[in-house]
Recover the amino acids of this structure.
């Protein structure tokens, strides 16, 4: 069984559980993605999914997260601006927004980037859908 | 209506009016992971003792690849009268990967892959052939090549430029001679990795998409066919018992990021 150490931190008086080893100051910063509008990126390693707790794996494709992102993310050509990408993805004609976002420094995988163009989060993906939604709602409303 | 194929009713499936086309892989010429870009499957198999809980979690959070495809309202592919199921099965997997990535939906052309491989003949093959071709050459949108058009006229500058945008960069080749192959495929779908699965008994290739719990330690493989939305539930159906154990299985892992 995979053991995952966690640390509780406060985000707007809500406790969010994150894997240990996070660089806290790096998580709450000016917008990780400078373009205006709410965007979400999860970077993962598809071949390492088996190492994740089932509750964390479910975040990627969960109805709650995708419905929220469908509603809140800015749309480009009718597609809500959220992506879940393998760390090794090669871009051909993806937009520059995502090419740049994939260059943001990551210290572990899976990694979550949330931005509303003014502020945002860049840090480890929380361990559950509920905790991830707290981070998203802080910046996406 | 959900179609369940098992050891008792499978014969009705091989006499159906639908086209198929999977050809048994020549394992002497193409041993497992011998293709230039294929990797042997090296992900640890998820123990059966965890399957029920993981399937329950998947259902509770509506996070299977079937849920994703349904939320995106992505139709089942339709190979029509071609014998190209072995390419359509892999394209169904690629479509699911892109939907899970939330990349804009692109309908890919089966004929843009299968027809050049087979020298523009309407003949069968196996999934690894399609995947290797997509690694090297890509697959183009139906905007440039109708999905069942077996014609050299579509192999032009425009379609070639488009296909270069859409390539697989990593794929796994599963050893189906191993007794654990069903557990390996279930591991993949539990991890939201779609698997193009070929069946010698059916001479057909489809795409494994989601795990199904039957109770009492029994499981089925939820798949999507390439016979359009009228088959099963929007193309989804289930294989169980010995009929769920594939003769060939390939897993595209990473596909290029492209918006058109």
């Amino acid at each position: 069984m995979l053991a995952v150490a966690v640390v509780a931190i406060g985000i707007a008086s809500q406790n969010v559980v994150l894997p240990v080893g996070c660089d806290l100051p790096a998580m709450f910063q000016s917008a990780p993605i400078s373009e205006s509008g709410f965007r979400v990126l999860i970077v993962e390693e598809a071949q390492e999914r088996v190492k994740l707790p089932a509750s964390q794996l479910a975040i990627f494709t969960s109805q709650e997260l995708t419905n929220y992102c469908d509603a809140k993310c800015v749309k480009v050509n009718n597609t809500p601006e959220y992506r879940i990408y393998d760390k090794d993805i090669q871009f051909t004609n993806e937009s520059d927004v995502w090419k740049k976002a994939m260059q943001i420094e990551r210290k572990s995988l899976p990694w979550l980037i949330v931005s509303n163009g003014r502020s945002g989060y860049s840090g480890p993906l929380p361990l559950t859908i509920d905790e991830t939604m707290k981070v998203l709602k802080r910046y996406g409303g | 209506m959900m179609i369940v194929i098992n050891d008792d009713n499978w014969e009705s499936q091989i006499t159906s009016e639908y086209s198929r086309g999977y050809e048994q892989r020549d394992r002497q010429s193409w041993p497992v992971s011998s293709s230039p870009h294929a990797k042997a499957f090296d992900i640890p198999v998820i123990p059966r003792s965890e399957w029920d809980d993981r399937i329950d979690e998947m259902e509770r959070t509506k996070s299977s690849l079937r849920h994703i495809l349904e939320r995106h309202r992505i139709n089942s592919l339709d190979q029509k009268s071609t014998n190209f199921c072995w390419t359509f099965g892999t394209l169904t997997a690629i479509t699911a990967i892109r939907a899970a990535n939330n990349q804009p939906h692109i309908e890919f052309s089966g004929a843009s892959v299968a027809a050049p491989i087979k020298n523009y003949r309407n003949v069968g093959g196996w999934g690894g052939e399609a995947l290797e071709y997509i690694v090297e050459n890509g697959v183009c949108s139906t905007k440039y090549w109708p999905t069942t058009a077996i014609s050299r006229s579509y192999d032009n500058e425009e379609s070639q430029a488009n296909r270069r945008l859409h390539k697989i960069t990593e794929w796994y080749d599963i050893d189906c001679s191993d007794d654990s192959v069903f557990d390996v495929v279930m591991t993949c779908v539990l991890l939201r990795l779609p698997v193009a699965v070929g069946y010698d008994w059916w001479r057909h290739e489809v795409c494994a998409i989601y795990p199904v719990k039957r109770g009492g330690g029994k499981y089925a493989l939820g798949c999507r066919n390439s016979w359009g939305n009228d088959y099963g539930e929007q193309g989804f159906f289930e294989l169980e018992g010995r009929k769920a154990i594939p003769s060939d299985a390939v897993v595209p892992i990473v596909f290029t990021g492209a918006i058109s």
